UniProtKB/TrEMBL annotation:
Keywords of this entry: Hydrolase
Molecular function terms from GO: hydrolase activity
Hydrolase found in the keyword field: yes
Species the sequence originates in: Nocardia cyriacigeorgica
Lineage of the organism: Bacteria, Bacillati, Actinomycetota, Actinomycetes, Mycobacteriales
Protein name per its UniProtKB record: GDSL-like Lipase/Acylhydrolase
Gene3D superfamilies: SGNH hydrolase
Pfam families in alphabetical order: Lipase_GDSL_2
InterPro entries, sorted: Ester_Hydrolysis_Enzymes, SGNH_hydro, SGNH_hydro_sf
Domain of life assignment: Bacteria
Residue ranges of domain SGNH hydrolase-type esterase in the record: 9-183
């Protein structure tokens, strides 16, 4: 009998798969990959458009607790940051130090409950200045996850040079890709995802 694995994908509009006409996004593609590899999972997409890490931190635990009974293999995938680095009223919506503090708290709370975590980097959009801020945050997230021994998938840089991602973001709303871009993103995450699920 296979283990009862349940996974919450927690984050923003990229987690939700906004812009993908197939409605799969990268999370749905990874869930399909798990099933294809003989590892069925129950997945919950908890991506909310425009939410920052501060807003995600405020809601995530209550939402996951409703979906994780005590007797299951409960896991969490976190991905956010693009909204944190968005400039509003002359400054980023969330200071980088606060973004790092929020991720630190999320990982600590997950560890306290023995929920393995996987973190996916915030992706680039069609705005070079915004991307520079997000890339800096990505580096800080990577350092944090290395210290916490949590797998972190650095997708920001490869997506920034990927022609499919860049084209679909540009012809879309300037931030979100279509199905092709989400396929590229899922492909970048797949190896780490499979390794993480096998633990």
């Amino acid at each position: 009998m296979s283990r009862d694995t349940r996974i919450c994908f927690v984050g923003d509009s990229f987690v939700a798969g906004v812009g993908d006409p197939t409605a799969l996004g990268w999370a749905g593609r990874l869930v399909a990959d798990a099933h294809a590899c003989g590892h069925p999972v129950t997945a919950y997409n908890l991506g909310v458009r425009r939410q920052s890490s501060t807003e995600i931190r405020a809601r995530w635990l209550a939402e996951c607790l409703q979906r994780f009974p005590d007797d299951v293999d409960a896991r969490v995938v976190f991905s956010f940051g693009v909204n944190d680095t968005m400039v509003e009223n002359g400054r980023p919506r969330v200071d980088a130090a606060d973004s790092v503090a929020n991720l630190t708290a999320l990982l600590a709370e997950a560890a306290d409950r023995d929920w393995p975590a996987l973190v996916v980097a915030p992706p680039p959009i069609d705005d070079d200045e915004h991307n520079a801020r997000t890339a800096a945050l990505d580096a800080r997230f990577a350092d944090l996850c290395a210290t916490a021994a949590v797998p972190y998938v650095r997708t920001h840089q490869p997506l920034g040079t990927d022609p499919v991602w860049r084209h679909e973001v540009r012809i879309g709303d300037g931030a979100h890709p279509g199905a092709g871009g989400y396929t590229v993103l899922a492909d970048l995450i797949r190896a780490a995802w499979r390794e993480w699920l096998a633990r």
